[in-house]
Amino acid sequence: MRTSLVYRNRRIYELLMRGLYRTHYAARFTAIDELIPDGVRVLDVCCGPATLYTRCLRDRSIDYTGLDRNAGFVADLIAAGGHGRVWDVRDETPLPAADFVVMQASLYHFLPDAAPVVDRMRAAAGTAVIVTEPIRNLATSEHRVVAALARRCTDAGDGAQAHRFTETTLDALFDRYGSRVTRRARIAGGREKLYVLTP
To answer: Which of 25, 146, 148, 154 has its CA 20 to 30 A from that of 34?
Structure first.
């Protein structure tokens, strides 16, 4: 699996994300942290460097497991005291059961049809699914060089992703779940949108 430098190194990944989100970086994680009570199992799908765990959940009474296809990220998570498994969500294996199933800024990897992944997350969740996804993206910039560079930097090993969600297309995806969507809100200075769904 050939990945961009950003996805090969946790520190570079974090540095890039901090640059993109600036003062709103921490808000990406606290918005999720506030929705998760103590004493539950959390499954973080496509967890990347597991920043949700290391920043928010590690010191709480939460049974956290992160899944990611990047073995280096998973090894870092385990070294930090969490549970992690190398897992390619594309293989359609049922996801491990948990109370809360989370995905942050990774749903675009499953375009053009991300609904089957959301359905598998719902099947694994006992209480809720929490999804956050960018709705403002450099990869869709009108500046061709900026867009091409952003797509290349965010290649997680499945090829540069040309497509991203807008707020309209993301809302359309979650509209199909009707009343099962119990919350939707812009977070991180309006760069991302958060959705909470019941199983």
So the answer is: 154
Site of tokens 């993206």: 137
The separation between the first and the last C-alpha atoms of the chain, rounded to the nearest angstrom, is 32
**Per-residue tokens: 31:** 């918005």
Range of the domain at 22: 5-197
Supply 149's token pair. Answer: 């560079």
CATH code (residue 97): 3.40.50.150
Domain count, the chain: 1
Taking the CA atoms of residue 77, residue 53, residue 152 and residue 8 in that order, the dihedral angle to the nearest 10 degrees is -20
For 85-101, write each residue's pLDDT tens digit.
999 999 889 999 999 99
CA distance 114 to 118: 7
